[in-house]
Amino acid sequence: MKPQIEKHVAVLLADGFEEGEAVVFIDIMRRLDIKVDVLSCMETTALETYFETRISADYTLTEKQTQSYDAIMMPGGPKGTDNLSANPMVIDFIKRHMQEDKLICALCSSGAKVLAAHGLLGKRKYTTGDGLPTKFNDGVFVDEDVVIEDNFITGRGLGVSFEFSFAVANVLLSDNTEKVLWQSNHIYFDHWPKNKKITRNTGKLKK
Fold first, then answer.
1. Amino acid 5: pLDDT
2. Terminal-to-terminal C-alpha distance of the chain
3. What is the torsional sign of CA 16, 38, 103, 96?
4. Residues paired with residue 11 on neighbouring β-strands, in sequence order
């Protein structure tokens, strides 16, 4: 049996991020033995969150700017996504991973305020928080909880954090989706679409 190659994900956080979305994603990745680097896009690893939960990152983005990951993820949070979008280093980091054909995963407002705001989606379908798609011309908004197109995975918001996280995991662990399904059963996640298949390039969850 071929040894499993460890997957490595970067979670990009800036002051004001939605902590629930970030923590659920990090939790699911690590339960599935996917390595996670939590990167602060601020000057220090100590971060201010949307609801004032004390959270510190593993590294600053500056320390990991040249490293390549299998996927990068950004949570929402009004101020958090403003701070991500205003940081040229963040946009350069995303663009490099796009060029390297890595997964770009955006939850809640980050799909619109980081990706669409910088013209990174093109004509790809995506989803994001209510009202945000009308503010940007980039991307094609669809009213779905989770959308997968090309190497982009987007989710509506906090309420679909588990669906989003398992969708990302299913793509990263495409050679071992049984492990993803086992973990969803293990945590009693009833909303995981057990009778559906998630594939890349479909634009959404499909039977």
1. 82
2. 30
3. positive
4. 38, 73
- Which residues lie below 8 Å from residue 129, measured CB to CB, with a gap of 6+? 76, 108, 109, 111, 112, 156, 157
Q: Give the pairing of strands 59-60 and 71-74.
A: unpaired
- Regarding pTM above 0.85, the answer is yes
Q: At what angle do helices 161-172 and 19-31 cross, to 10 degrees?
A: 40
Cα–Cα dist 59/152, whole Å: 24
Distance CA 54, CA 110 (A): 21
The pLDDT value recorded for residue 32 is: 98
Phi first, then psi, for residue 148 (nearest 5°) are -120, 120
Which residue in 100, 147, 91, 153 sits closest to 120, CA to CA?
Answer: 91
Fill in the amino acid letter for 92.
D
Instruction: Give the type of residue at 6.
Output: E
